[in-house]
Design goal:
Radius of gyration: 19 Å
Organism: Periophthalmus magnuspinnatus
Keywords: Hydrolase, Metal-binding
Bound molecules: the ligand CC(=O)NCCS(=O)(=O)O
Strand content: 5-15%
Protein name: N-acetyltaurine hydrolase
GO molecular function, one term: zinc ion binding
Distance between the termini: 7 Å
Number of strands: 10
Shape: globular
CATH architecture: Alpha-Beta Barrel
Oligomer: single chain
Strand order of the largest sheet: 3-4-5-6-7-8-9-10
Number of domains: 1
Family: Belongs to the metallo-dependent hydrolases superfamily. Phosphotriesterase family.
Order of helices and strands: EEEHHHEHEHHEHEHEHEHEHH
Amino acid sequence: MSNLSGRVQTVLGLVDPEKLGRTMTHEHLTMTFECCYFPPPQGDEAVAANPFQMQHMHWLRQNPYSCHENLLLQQETDAVRDELRVYKQAGGGAIVENTTTGLERDLPTLKQLAQDTGVHIIAGAGYYVDCTHSETTKSMTVEQLTDVIVSEVLNGADGTDIRCGVIGEIGTGWPITDSEKRVLRATAHAQTRLGCPVIIHPGRNPAAPAEVVRILQEAGGDIGKTVMSHLDRTIFDEGELLEFAKLGSYLEYDLFGTEMLNYPYNTDIDMPSDSQRVKTLAFLVKEGYEDKILVAHDIHTKNRLTKFGGHGYSHILKNIVPKMLTRGISQRQVDKILIDNPKHWLTFK
Ligand SMILES: CC(=O)NCCS(=O)(=O)O
């Protein structure tokens, strides 16, 4: 194990895990999502070209990926800084910033945001989904990929000395490509060397999370220290969810605030409402998984910021927690989900 043992690694250095406080385990503060642009519905091209007007806000919520400008979160650092201050005032302590290679990770900006706001920011190592893998990435062996990921944690990433504190979000699609499989194996090998937390972006199919776990496990990964993200758009059947939960990963509901009718990346999927998400959390708590639940908003487009009428980074603290308390989740269980579970996951072994 590394000398990071028992500590959490933020962009400002190592911290005592007790210092984190309430933690959103899946957010983005600066990134581009251009890789996932989706053309607008026919006839809506004019709105898509000029979206940030009050009368277009509903359209933007329904079609966030169909407007190039909306995908450039990295243009909104001032608004994000303001929001982080609000988040801190609302009782937030830490944020895991999941931007990996392929999404224009910007570690100096994360460091500056942490310094300016006092929010602990934990950055992500590794690679996003296949369509963002460069030719170089695609040609690398598992050993070479492992060395890059380990170095991003031990020495710093992207030519800086700013170190990542988690591996991920590691991007996978469905079916999982060969290049994504190599990255998953490298993730498991790096985790074995470092004893560090891992977080996965699964493909949009109910079978995808378990297949990722299988690949990680086969490569020696520590599933108990791994988060499966985006379960709110991936597994809908309660029986299937319990089957997956038995595999032992953290179960992350990280699209709080996102309510849309037509999910463009898989139109078979009905994106749940926040009320449905809370209901699923209450179900998992009842089934004994309160130690495994994590929550976040996964802000990755501009329209999700309060500046543009969105829910912002404080939505869970301000709106979802009170709802959880009225739906059979106790204050102690809420504290586990927001404080204890993130702390345990983020602490290096
Ligand atoms: C940045 C990112 O990967 N967000 C997830 C979007 S998705 O629609 O839930 O896959």
